[in-house]
């Protein structure tokens, strides 16, 4: 579904990713973990054309999408929920979802999509007329994910969905991610909460200094190389 | 008939309303802290004044007064598109100073500090706009039209995109919004209406000079936007009336004329301070000024 080859990217001439190769198959949850500054968020931003790409190729459903404008990427079937629960705080929950659905010109389709989202996220339905700023951290994160889902993606990019959440809220967010995946949406997730991310992922990549250092399945945390990457242990 | 004094006040309310509404679009809705706004006002005023003095019809002057600042806004937005917050404020403030310096020093075109006197009032459809009541009707109609157009823009999907950019530009980008284009358009529309206000001011006063377009002239317009409330058009109308009328009692308490100007600025500053302290969202605003 998604294949990234030899990707070099960064910001304003500064190279963060130094040749990354990863892939995501249909129906998979793939986790990207690694220490701070490893380039995890930059990888998601590069896919979504929010970082500068210097070299390499990004293929989605057999089409080269390298440097494709963001609105075209959404039309191709990729959506992105950025780090930090970036909801539009002065808009209502409903308006936030409408903002996500702007790519559809058919108003009936927008209504249908939002209705569908409310069925999947009953908490948001109950608060649809409330300003997003009045939601709890967990609810804001769910709104951020729901706003991306309203675009009907085939691949969802999630950047640290557990950031700043309480353990209960985090559990809810992760179970929602699994539920989304069961509805045939592939997920590429960047996460600091390594244990949680690995537990829901089919495969995991560990990034180190802008390169893939290790690839594995649910046992990746038992691999001695993982400790070496995270803690410098030999 | 309305007395000349009250007619003049109502005309100034119309002109300030157009200015404040147009600043509201860029600042209140899109979050662009554009301190170069007075520069657009100046360009509109000078463009229309020069054309009117060369005998061009009013509608042509008005259109040019709107379009020339729009072009400048496009250039300014292209140059400052990656700037945000304080950096954008500083860069656009520089633009305001440059325009002021041009009006002051390009003597051949603007007559510098002497200003441009004898700017004719409009005359069309057999109506003489030298009559203040007629000019008031014209300026009020343009102000109402400005309100309706900006209201339409603000409640459109484009308006919602501007609000999304104000709330969080990265989030808006991540939803596929063309944020750079939207910000540029917001600045251009804002400049378009500021230019129209400049044209009305030049026609009404029949005289303009650089002092009307100094940076400090942004204070009352900014005060209106903050007091009315960011992203609130009805609030802007309410605040315009208050801010234009607020310093008027100063005229009647026997203050020397040299003190009226500073007294007016003092009142604006005091009012702004009180609002920011006790009502940070203004009277009808949805968001706080950050």
UniProtKB/TrEMBL annotation, chain A:
GO MF annotation list: ATP binding; ATP hydrolysis activity; branched-chain amino acid transmembrane transporter activity
PROSITE patterns for the chain: ABC_TRANSPORTER_1 (PS00211), ABC_TRANSPORTER_2 (PS50893)
Keywords: Amino-acid transport, ATP-binding, Nucleotide-binding, Transport
Domain ABC transporter, first and last residues per copy: 2-234
GO biological process, one term: L-amino acid transport
InterPro entries referenced in this protein's UniProt entry, alphabetically: AAA+_ATPase (IPR003593), ABC_transporter-like_ATP-bd (IPR003439), ABC_transporter-like_CS (IPR017871), BCAA_Transport_ATP-bd_LivF (IPR052156), P-loop_NTPase (IPR027417)
Keyword Nucleotide-binding included in the entry's annotation: yes
Similarity annotation: Belongs to the ABC transporter superfamily.
Protein name: ABC transporter ATP-binding protein
From TrEMBL, chain B:
Database matches in InterPro entries: ABC_transp_permease, LivM-like
The entry's keywords: Cell membrane, Membrane, Transmembrane, Transmembrane helix
Protein's cellular compartments: Cell membrane
Bilayer disposition of the protein: Multi-pass membrane protein
Pfam families: BPD_transp_2 (PF02653)
Gene Ontology cellular component annotations, sorted alphabetically: plasma membrane
GO molecular function: branched-chain amino acid transmembrane transporter activity
Species for this entry: Candidatus Berkelbacteria bacterium CG10_big_fil_rev_8_21_14_0_10_43_13
Top-level division of the source organism's lineage: Bacteria
Transmembrane segments: 6-25, 32-51, 57-76, 88-107, 133-150, 185-207, 219-246, 266-284
Name this polypeptide is given: Branched-chain amino acid ABC transporter permease
């Amino acid at each position: 579904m998604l294949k990234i080859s030899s990707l070099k990217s960064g910001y304003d001439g500064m190279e963060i990713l130094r040749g990354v190769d990863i892939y995501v198959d249909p129906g998979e949850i793939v986790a990207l973990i690694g220490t701070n500054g490893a380039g995890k968020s930059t990888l998601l931003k590069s896919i979504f054309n929010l970082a500068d790409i210097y070299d390499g190729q990004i293929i989605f459903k057999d089409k080269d999408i390298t440097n494709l404008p963001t609105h075209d990427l959404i039309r191709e079937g990729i959506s992105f929920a950025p780090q930090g629960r970036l909801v539009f705080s002065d808009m209502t929950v409903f308006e936030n979802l409408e903002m996500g659905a702007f790519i559809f010109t058919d108003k009936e389709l927008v209504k249908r999509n939002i209705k569908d989202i409310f069925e999947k996220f009953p908490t948001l339905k109950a608060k649809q007329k409330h300003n997003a700023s009045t939601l709890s951290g967990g609810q804001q994160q769910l709104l951020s994910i729901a706003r991306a889902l309203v675009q009907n993606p085939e691949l969802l990019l999630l950047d640290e969905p557990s950031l700043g959440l309480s353990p209960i809220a985090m559990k809810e967010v992760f179970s929602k991610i699994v539920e989304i995946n069961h509805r045939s949406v592939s997920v590429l997730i960047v996460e600091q909460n390594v244990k949680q991310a690995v537990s829901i992922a089919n495969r995991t990549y560990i990034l180190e200094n802008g390169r893939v250092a290790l690839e594995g399945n649910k046992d990746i945390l038992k691999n001695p190389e993982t400790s070496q990457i995270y803690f410098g242990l030999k | 008939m309305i007395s000349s004094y009250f007619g003049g006040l109502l005309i100034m309310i119309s002109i300030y309303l157009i200015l404040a509404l147009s600043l509201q679009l860029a600042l209140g809705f899109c979050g662009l802290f554009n301190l170069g706004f007075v520069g657009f006002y100046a360009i509109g005023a000078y463009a229309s004044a020069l054309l009117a003095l060369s005998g061009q019809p009013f509608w042509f002057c008005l259109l040019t007064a709107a379009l020339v600042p729009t072009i400048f806004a496009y250039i300014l937005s292209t140059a400052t598109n990656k700037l945000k917050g304080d950096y954008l404020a500083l860069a656009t403030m520089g633009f305001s100073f440059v325009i002021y310096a041009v009006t002051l020093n390009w003597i051949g075109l603007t007559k510098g500090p002497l200003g441009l006197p004898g700017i004719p009032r409009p005359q069309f459809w057999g109506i003489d706009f030298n009559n203040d009541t007629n000019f008031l009707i014209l300026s009020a109609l343009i102000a109402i039209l400005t309100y309706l157009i900006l209201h339409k823009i603000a409640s459109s999907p484009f308006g919602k995109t501007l609000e999304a950019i104000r709330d969080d530009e990265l989030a808006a980008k991540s939803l596929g919004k063309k944020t750079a284009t939207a910000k540029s358009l917001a600045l251009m529309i804002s400049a378009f209406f500021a230019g129209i206000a400049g044209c009305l001011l030049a026609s009404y006063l029949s005289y303009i000079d650089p002092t009307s377009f100094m940076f400090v002239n942004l204070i009352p317009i900014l005060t209106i936007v903050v007091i009315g409330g960011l992203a609130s058009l009805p609030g802007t109308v309410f605040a315009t009336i208050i801010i234009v009328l607020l310093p008027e009692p100063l005229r009647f308490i026997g203050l020397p004329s040299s003190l009226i100007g500073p007294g007016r600025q003092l009142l604006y500053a005091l009012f702004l301070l009180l609002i920011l302290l006790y009502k940070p969202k203004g009277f009808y605003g949805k968001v706080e000024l950050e």
